[in-house]
Design a protein that fits this description.
heterodimer; A: alpha/beta; Rossmann fold; 5-stranded parallel beta sheet; 7 strands; B: alpha+beta; Ubiquitin-like (UB roll); Alpha-Beta Plaits; 5-stranded mixed beta sheet; 3-stranded antiparallel beta sheet; 16% strand; binds iron/sulfur cluster; binds FE2/S2 (inorganic) cluster; iron (chain A); 3Fe-4S (chain A)
Chain lengths: 179, 239
Amino acid sequence: MAAKLRVATTSLAGCFGCHMSFLDIDERMIELAQHVEFDRSPITDIEHCGPCDIGLIEGGVCNSENVHTLREFRKNCKVLVAVGACAINGGLPAMRNHFKLEDCLNESYIDGMGLENAQIPSDPELPLLLDNVHPIHEIVKVDYYMPGCPPSGDVFWSFLSDIIAGREPSLPYELVHFD
Amino acid sequence: MSKTITIDGKEIPYEDGQTIMDAAIAADIYIPHLCHDPDYEPHGSCKLCTVNVNGRNCSACTFPALEGQNIINQSADLEQDRKRITQMLFVEGNHFCPSCEKTGDCQLQGVAYYLDMHDNHFPHFFANREMDASHPDILIDHNRCIFCNLCVRASQEKDHKNVFAISGRGMNKHLIVNSITGKLKDSNIHINDHAAHICPTGAILIKRTGYKVPIGERTYDKQKIDAVALAKENKHHGR
Ligand code: SF4
Ligand code: SF4
Ligand code: FES
């Protein structure tokens, strides 16, 4: 049997919906496990990704840590895939781009309703927020895109089946949605 | 004998005064388009209908059909150009489809799906654009306007009202409303006006109708835009 493909996944500025949708491949997960093994992902809880065949990125880039994680994935993954609307165009998190970062922070931590001891968090451990949320192709080269918010389980299955079989991935019309 | 043009090797008839788009639609040939609607004067702004006529690229919706034209509509080059044009439309505005009521019924999406567009390719502008929710029945979200001019034409040509205009150029281009405050509520638009229903994207929406048809069961969830557009725009389908 051919060596298993190594897959890493992560969520940047996303809601984990794409990861949840990945689980919607349901019992096909068992077949998938015969062809792939996971490197960094929520399943393995590994902190840094090593050399991989495929990197699946959910979410856009909203802070300095996202930039580092994304660059690490790009360096280590032969094929990098933008998964879902946030990775592809910033998605709903990018709706904050219409406002000043300061206003967003004030609204969340100072002026928001029912706040006690209001203050803007400033722990040095916290990653710095970027002015704007960016789609990942603005930071690194992306090889493939899986549209959707989130892409359905069938999109994950179709894409990974193509890669496993050594085919150029392509999505049938019914599976392409931007919502 | 009727006059003919050739599209992708197929000879089709045309009449004097018809554009390439008119002749193509009548022959059930789909040329991707967004700013064109056969009920209105052609505008030629989106350039999605770019075809190659005897070696030169032209907009099918504005270019007259003429004897001896050899037209290429489907080629890898044109598909690529159209995909890039559509991607530019997406990055120029702010298209957050998951939060848009028009999703699934949106022609911009429909074209993107048809062109197998999965990403936006270009860096995003994330331009600051306004929303006008002042009118009791009609909403404008300028983030989704692609400047197709259809609402402008509908208001002038069918409603005879002149509610809309496009002002400014390039990056500063924007849709304006003809009222003393610039707000829709102070204009004379009415919910039954053609202009309120023509928008190909989710820029002009009728309030309280958004989720009557659930996401997943909408126009382009079920059918490709070529079939939808031809069925709607080609009068002989209705006969
Ligand atoms: S108008 Fe169309 S393309 Fe724009 S956000 Fe709405 S559904 Fe998406
Ligand atoms: S509001 Fe809609 S119909 Fe009017 S110009 Fe913009 S996209 Fe076209
Ligand atoms: S449809 Fe011809 S330019 Fe828009």
